[in-house]
Amino acid sequence: MTTAHDMSENAPREVIAQTLREEILTGRLAPGDRLREADLAARFGVSRVPVREALSQLQSEGFVTLVRYRGATVSATSGSAARELIQIRRGLEVLAAQLAAERRGGDVADDLARVVELGRSAAVNLAHADHPPLVLRFHTLVVEAAGNHQLRLMLDPLLRRVSWIFDQHLRERSHDSWSDHAAIAQAILSGSPVQAGYLMGEHIAKDERLLDELDHH
Prior knowledge:
Shape: elongated
Number of helices: 10
Number of domains: 2
Organism: Nocardia transvalensis
Strand content: under 5%
Distance between the termini: 40 Å
GO molecular function: DNA binding; DNA-binding transcription factor activity
Helix content: over 70%
Oligomer: single chain
Strand order of the largest sheet: 1-3-2
Radius of gyration: 19 Å
Domain HTH gntR-type: 10-77
InterPro entries: GntR_C (IPR011711), TF_FadR/GntR_C (IPR008920), Tscrpt_reg_HTH_GntR (IPR000524), WH-like_DNA-bd_sf (IPR036388), WH_DNA-bd_sf (IPR036390)
Order of helices and strands: HHEHHEEHHHHHH
Protein name: DNA-binding GntR family transcriptional regulator
């Protein structure tokens, strides 16, 4: 829940954008839902200016569609757009995995191992609701482990958007991906950049194939 303290500590635009982004990512706001400036201004206790700025920011991230004279709606991403994003993600995340392996996971090595344990446990216990946030956490940790600030700035929003796209298009996504994640983590923690990059590339290629299969159904 957004509080007055949140607003006082951060720019209203950032608070509004962060809140709406989280509601989109968690499904509380669904593709096609209207985002009316007046309602949002009243909800957050601000003028329409920071609301417009927040919606513009979310548009640039791909979460919101702005149509002149009609306002803002939550975006619905096509399969082709999803594929393009995954292709970009593959190139950047292979690099992240290689850099992370050069640093053997850096300061988040223990966190990386732990999230793999949690993911495997969720898969064994069929805890389907836990799967998407744990997958996102794993990939976010790989980027953090790379130790490259500019790469993280590029990949963090991309990973959030790809996670959201999978929730729209691939709700039945396989939970056996944790064997892939475990192998990637092992390569990173053992300091094997070539293997880590290769495994990450193969892992993301599976996501591309899943989208291809979806298109043919």
